[in-house]
Amino acid sequence: MAASADVTHDVVSLLSSPERDYLLRNNGDQVKIENLKGKKVGIYFSASWCGPCRKFTPTLVEAYDEVVSKGDFEVVFTSADEDDEAFKGYFSKMPWLAIPFSDSETRSRLDELFQVRGIPNLVLLDETGKVVTEDGVDIVREYGVEAYPFTSARIQELRDLEEEARRNQSVRSLLISPSRDFVISSNGNNVPVSELEGKTVGLYFSHNSFGPSNDFTPKLVRVYEELKARGENFEVVLIPLDEDEESFKEVLGSVPWLSLPFKDKFCGKLAQYFELSILPTLVILGPDGKTLNSNVAEAIEDHGVVAYPFTPEKFAELDEILKAREAAQTIESILVSEDLDFVIGKDGVQVPVSELNGKVVLLYFSAHWCPPCRAFLPKLVDVYHEIKAKGNALEIVFISSDKDQASFDEFFGGMPWLALPFGDSRKRFLSRKFRVSGIPMLVAIGSSGRTLTTKARDMVLQYGARAYPFTDEKIKEIEAEEDEIAKGWPEKLTHETHEHELALTRRKVYYCDGCNEQGHAWSYYCEKCDFDLHPKCVLKEDKGSKDGWVCNGEVCKKV
């Protein structure tokens, strides 16, 4: 919170200028600033070009409309727009007051006074002009009109109520609002929330336009229908996050479960309550209404209906199943799916997956549109050729995230290895299995078919071809060699190129600030300045020492 918190301001002098004693409505009417005396005031820093602002403004409008009738609250918009036309267009959607766009001096003064470093920003003042909070955006997002009158005491009261609600959580406390005690069925009928009591309930957070949600929904339908056919006391309630009502209706009409109404306020509240961070998410409530699991979507992907009833005991059992699968894993169990038992080489030639048996296989998750992927590819190609030249049993399989066949063909054309065909259904399984959240990613599968590491990209960058066969034992061997090389080097020193002391530090990959070449393993490093010097640039060579060696004291060692 900025230093202006807990400071009291005279609202008239705060919002006026020597030439102006009024504020504007969006129809051009002028309102005397003195009319705000004795009112709670929110100063709203926002702009039309700011996406988060445009998203938050309707939320603030909703809260304002419910509170303004009390007669003791007002909001004043101070714009960060770049021109008067943009200001007017944005302000036309706001029911409150604004500082004229022409008064840039007052707008700048308020920015500076409240140390506004990001928007949207909502500063809330009480009736005396005292700053109640500068976290008004977070408060309104989280609590809406319930936070009124926005005092710290009220916020604490709401947090205490939340804590009590968590302790006494039930399906009723989660799904019933002051204006609604029902959920809706796929045909639009109201179903009392009370009918869910005593059941295992899945709260399904989903967004129809989001690909992973669309992919997961049919799997959940199959699990749901099988559990219903078995007579299990299970129900699903959709928590829709869609922006388009037609899209919501289309989805609800195609699934067999219940839902909160479209754009119900509790959708956002439940997303906050369960700290939603990924879609799809399926929260499981036990028959007592308490949370059994915060997200079983992945378990359903991996195990289907076997994951029911989603209890800790069941998940312990599933963990043992996964361990057994890992122990029995082969390259075929990873890359073969029904009749898809091949990868492709150049010109689309099909290569049976069985030909990869006995080899170390690197699964290369990458895409042409990804700059880090394009930067990494030449290094990987060089390492591939170097390992193969030594007669080692290695293969790489490219798993593409490209958006079209042409991009795939262009990128794969520069690779000397194999690939899954573009758009192959196995990619989704592999991405989920290896938790691919960013690319490029390189997964190493050993000659036995067991997973060696999901961090093979780091190994390639750091150790090059020496990393083969990508086992823990090999990396420990390399690190031991590097430790031996560094013996006798000074642990700390100073150098003419840098003002601070440099410490001998193990570094994965870096660029030397002396010679601008890439280094790895060891650097003379200044953490404060993120400054690296390669040992060969720091340690002076004795006369008669050979290139690639450094001599320090009584020992000459390779760099």
From TrEMBL:
Q: Name one GO molecular function term.
A: thioredoxin-disulfide reductase (NADPH) activity
| Substrates-to-products reaction catalysed | [protein]-dithiol + NAD(+) = [protein]-disulfide + NADH + H(+); [protein]-dithiol + NADP(+) = [protein]-disulfide + NADPH + H(+)
Task: Write down the Pfam families for this protein, in alphabetical order.
Answer: C1_2, Thioredoxin_8
Q: Where is the Thioredoxin domain positioned along the sequence?
A: 11-160, 173-324, 325-480
Asked if the Swiss-Prot or TrEMBL record annotates the protein with the keyword Oxidoreductase, the reply is yes
* CDD domains noted in UniProt: TryX_like_TryX_NRX
Gene3D superfamilies to which the protein is assigned, alphabetical: Glutaredoxin (3.40.30.10)
Q: Does the keyword Transmembrane helix apply?
A: no
Q: Mind telling me which InterPro entries this protein's record contains?
A: C1-like_sf, DC1, Nucleoredoxin-like, Thioredoxin-like_fold, Thioredoxin-like_sf, Thioredoxin_CS, Thioredoxin_domain, TryX_NRX_thioredoxin_dom
Tell me the keywords, alphabetical order: NAD, Oxidoreductase, Repeat
Per the UniProt entry, the Enzyme Commission number(s) are 1.8.1.8
Q: Which family does it belong to?
A: Belongs to the nucleoredoxin family.
Q: Which PANTHER family match?
A: NUCLEOREDOXIN 1 ISOFORM X1-RELATED (PTHR13871:SF104), THIOREDOXIN (PTHR13871)
Protein name, as recorded: protein-disulfide reductase
- To which species is this protein native? Vigna angularis var. angularis
